[in-house]
Amino acid sequence: MKTYKIALLKGDGIGPEIVEQAVKVFDKTAEKFGFKVEYDPADIGGIAIDNYGEPLPQITIDKCKAADSVLLGAVGGPKWDTQPAGNRPESGLLKIRSSLGLFANLRPAVIFEPLKKASPIKDEIIGDNLDIMIVRELTGGIYFGQRGRTEENGIPCAYDTEKYSVNEIERIVKVAFDMAMKRNKKLTSVDKANVLESSRLWRETVNRIAKEYPEVEVNHLYVDNCAMQLVRNPGQFDVIVTSNIFGDILSDEASMISGSIGMLASASLSSGKSGLYEPIHGSAPDIAGQNKANPLATILSVAMMLKYSLDEPEAAQAIENAVGKALETYRTPDIYEEGKIKVTCTEMGDKVCSLL
Ligand code: IPM
Ligand code: MG
What we know:
The protein is α/β, with parallel strands linked by helices and 356 residues long. Helices cover 41% and strands 22% of the residues. It contains twelve helices and 14 strands. The protein has a ten-stranded mixed beta sheet with strand order 2-1-3-12-11-4-5-10-8-9, sandwiched between helices. A two-stranded antiparallel sheet has the order 6-7. A two-stranded parallel sheet has the order 13-14. The longest helix is centred in the first third of the chain and has 19 residues, at 15-33. The radius of gyration is 20 Å and the shape is globular. The structure holds 3-isopropylmalic acid (IPM) and magnesium ion. Residues 90, 93, 248, 280, 282 line the site of 3-isopropylmalic acid.
C-alpha cells in the first residue's frame, strides 16, 4: 500500500488540538482511499525552545526534509514573549520556510455556502462565489532583509529592509501565472510602486513575465487600494500575487470574508513537490487547551497537501466536501450562528470524519 511519511509539527497553543483533529481526518481519508500515513512528530516554536533551547532544532529540519510533506499547527504564546528577537517561536517558522526553500505560499480565500451569514461582509457584496487565491512570496522581502538598531544624533533608531532580487520576484510571479492559467486567467499583482523601489522592480518583472502568458489578464493594484477592494468587491479577484509582508496582511483580511480566520488553509511550496501545510491563523493562546478551537483550517490544510504534494486530488475533494457538509449543521464557537449545533474542536473533527 502506498505510504506517505508526514512530519507533524504541532507547535504551541491550540496547535496540538487542531493537528490532532486533522490527523484523525487524514487517517480516515487514507482508509477510504487506500493509502497509509505515517507520522513523524517534531518540535517547532515555543515547545522547541523548551525542549531544545531554540525554536527550530536541526532534528526538526532533518525530519521535514526526510518526509513526503509537513503538517504544522501554530507557534507562539506569551510564555516565550521575553525570548530575545532571534529566538522567538516565530523565528522557528521563518527558519523552516527558508530551510526548506518554501518560497511560494498559497492562501486560498474561499467561502463555504453555509458560512455566508457568518461573514461580516454583506451577502450582496460577496456575490455568488468567493474564490480568491493569494500567492504570497514567503522567503524574501522585509521578513528576511537586514534589520537592526542604531543611534542617530543620540536618538535610538531601528530599521528593517525590504529587498527583492529579480530572480526571487520571477519565480513567485511564475507560480502565480501558472495558477491563474489553471483558474480564471486573471492575475492581480499587488505592490506599492508609487513609493517603493522594490515594488517598481516587482511591477516591471510582472509585466515582463506577462508576455509569456498572453492569455492571462493582468492588472496592478497598490496595496492600500487592494485592501479596500477586497471588502468593496471581492468577486473581482482570481489570483493575487504579492510580497511577503503585503501577503501576510491581505490574507488575514481576505480570511474574514470567509467567515473566520479559523477556516483558511495554506500551502507553502518549494520548486519541487514537497511542501509545508498549515492554517493561516495563529496559536490562539487565549483559548488553548479548552477544546474550543476551530480545526477546519488545519483539516483543509490536509486537503491542500493531498492536492499539491501527494497527488491525491479525489481524497482532497472528499475532505472539502465533508467540511462543507459538516458546516451545514455543526459550528465551533468562532463561526456559531443561531439554529446550528455548537460543537467542540474534537467533535468537529469527528463530524468531518463521519461525513467523509
Ligand atoms: C503567518 C503568520 C506569520 C507570518 C508569523 C507568525 C511570523 O502571521 O503565517 O501569516 O507573518 O508569516
Ligand atoms: Mg499572518
